[in-house]
Amino acid sequence: MINVLIVDDEPLARKELRRVLSTADDITIIGECSNAIDAVGVINREKPDVVFLDIQMPRVSGIEMLSMLDHEKMPHIVFLTAYDEYAVQAFEQHAFDYLLKPVNQARLDKTLQRLRRDREPQKIGLLPGASQLRQIPCFGQHHVQLLRMEEVECVASGVSGVSVIATDGSERPTDLPLHILQDRTPLLRCHRQYLVNVDCIEKIKFLENGLAEIITKRGNTIPVSRRFLPQIKDRLGIL
Predict the structure, then answer these.
(1) Under 8 Å CB-to-CB from 208, ≥6 apart: which residues?
(2) Cβ atoms of 78 and 96 closer than 8 Å
(3) Which of 100, 15, 17, 22 is nearest to 56 (CA)?
(4) C-alpha closest to that of 215 among 104, 3, 206
(5) pLDDT at site 202
(6) What is the pLDDT of residues 96-129, one digit of tens each?
(7) CB count in 10 Å sphere of residue 185
(8) SS3 call for 157
(9) Burial, 12: exposed, middle or buried (Cβ in 10 Å; 0-12, 13-18, 19+)?
(10) What is the DSSP letter of 174?
(11) HEC string for 91-154
(12) CA dihedral sign, ordered 92, 97, 100, 106
């Protein structure tokens, strides 16, 4: 069976795609998402084989969403678009395929035939500049908030998951793992459980045994491990 996730902000488009996919006996639709933020969490948890992904969505586009995923564990991406020009972007992204809306059954069948032949994890390339996240999706009660990098003091990983500590003192969970945030944001790794915004550092306190602590401008303390202390000092110009 091929497990499929549908991501599209238009309810009618999701309904129509579900209808045409239902004609295939080996397709299981594991869920639908109306936005890219929710889709990141579902992809991380459910690990679908294929994501049918709308390119044009509010707040975070389908292409931007790819920057939030682990490219070592990427499902096949089939872009959905109402415009031919986005097909060029799709192939620059090395998308597995693209479909024009409204989805044609014969064209979809060709995509499904290719998916049945090629079950290896997809290799994704990024458009210039697309690899850097401009904002971090965070979850509150009944809402999602996109925090800009200048609003982030640090990111911490704990038993309950990854949390973003904002410059206003609030703390919000995110579905993005630390290694994704380390690779695709300006945040600097200072500890195996922490990333820090360099602009929020007030001072560094050096401890015994090669350890240190970062004191932020808000007065918070963030641990620094021996492994990451040299790059912290280098970034701050400390000899």
Answers:
(1) none
(2) yes
(3) 100
(4) 206
(5) 94
(6) 888 988 899 999 999 999 999 876 555 555 444 4
(7) 20
(8) strand
(9) exposed
(10) E
(11) HHCCCCEEEECCCCHHHHHHHHHHHHHCCCCCCCCCCCCCCCCCEEEEEECCEEEEEEHHHEEE
(12) positive
**SS3 assignment, position 4:** strand
On whether the CB atoms of residues 171 and 161 are closer than 8 A, the answer is no
φ/ψ (deg, to 5) at 88: -65, -45
Task: Identify the three-state secondary structure at position 65.
Answer: helix
- Are residues 48 and 30 in contact, defined by beta-carbon separation less than 8 angstroms? yes
Token pair 């999706």 in the structure block, residue: 137
Structure-block tokens of residue 46:
């459910």
Contacts 24+ apart (CB under 8 A), 82-90: 82/56, 83/56, 86/55, 86/56, 89/55, 89/63, 89/127, 90/55
